[in-house]
Design a protein that fits this description.
With 231 residues, the protein is an alpha/beta fold. It is globular and about 45 Å long. InterPro entries: SAM-dependent_MTases_sf (IPR029063), tRNA_(Gua-N-7)_MeTrfase_Trmb (IPR003358), tRNA_methyltr_TrmB_bact (IPR055361). It catalyses: guanosine(46) in tRNA + S-adenosyl-L-methionine = N(7)-methylguanosine(46) in tRNA + S-adenosyl-L-homocysteine. Keywords: Methyltransferase, S-adenosyl-L-methionine, Transferase, tRNA processing.
């Protein structure tokens, strides 16, 4: 059995579905733009998704896992119009807010996935299809008994590495010290990835500072980045 098949068996929970009310604006943009911009995991046809067809163009594609309220995704899409950006999130209000950013900045290079990014990668993304994967501030599940629910595990990192093209990047960031140490340990053990800095990466100036990160800093938690390249 390969690493891809093992992902579910080791208790990985990449996202948690929440039921949260959307604002009037988020509801409006969901009704008007979702058919164009979004897909739900349940509605995807079996097999590999044609990313070029989804975007209407062929371009390097980056997957952001857990896009939250979309502020960082939108800024990154504005800064890199030549890149296709897929934002995976289960939180409807977050996806709705991201679509509002898409409208504000008239972005044509953003698509949204509502569902579990793990299932999306495993079932719908071809090996070598992605130029990058970004995982910024995943749920830390701080209680020790919940650590098994953390997203970044050896099988999941192996799956990501398989879906990255040679030279593609995996970029992680977290403000929880023990999770950061575990990320470093897990990624260092993946033979298909090379740590670009041999350890913690300097904070990239191009990664937007979100309200979440600002709050973490204010509460005294150090933010650590890791950047890996697919060999």
């Amino acid at each position: 059995m390969g690493a891809t098949d093992q992902v579910r068996q080791v208790g990985v929970f990449s996202t948690v579905r929440r039921s949260v009310r959307m604002t009037v604006g988020q509801k409006r943009v969901w009704e008007t733009r979702w058919p164009e911009l979004g897909r739900t995991q349940e509605d995807l046809p079996p097999g590999e998704l044609d990313l070029g067809d989804w975007f209407g163009r062929t371009a390097p594609t980056v997957l952001e896992i857990g896009s939250g309220m979309g502020e960082a995704t939108a800024q990154l899409a504005v800064a890199a119009p030549e890149v296709n950006h897929v934002a995976a999130e289960v939180y409807p209000a977050g996806l709705g807010q991201l679509m509002l950013w898409v409208e504000k900045y008239d972005l044509g290079n953003v698509r949204l996935l509502q569902g579990d990014a793990l299932d999306f990668l495993r079932d719908h993304v071809a090996p070598g299809a992605l130029a990058g994967v970004r995982i910024y501030f995943p749920d830390p599940w701080p209680k020790k008994r919940h650590h098994k629910r953390r997203l970044v595990t050896s099988p999941f990192v192996a799956l990501i590495a398989d879906r990255l093209q040679p030279g593609g990047t995996l970029h992680l960031a977290t403000d929880w010290a023990d999770y950061a140490d575990r990320m470093l340990e897990v990624c260092a053990a993946e033979p298909a990835l090379r740590n670009e800095y041999g350890g913690w990466a300097p904070r990239p100036e191009w990664r937007p500072v979100t309200k979440f990160e600002s709050r973490a800093r204010a509460e005294g938690r150090e933010v650590r980045d890791l950047i890996y390249t697919k060999l």
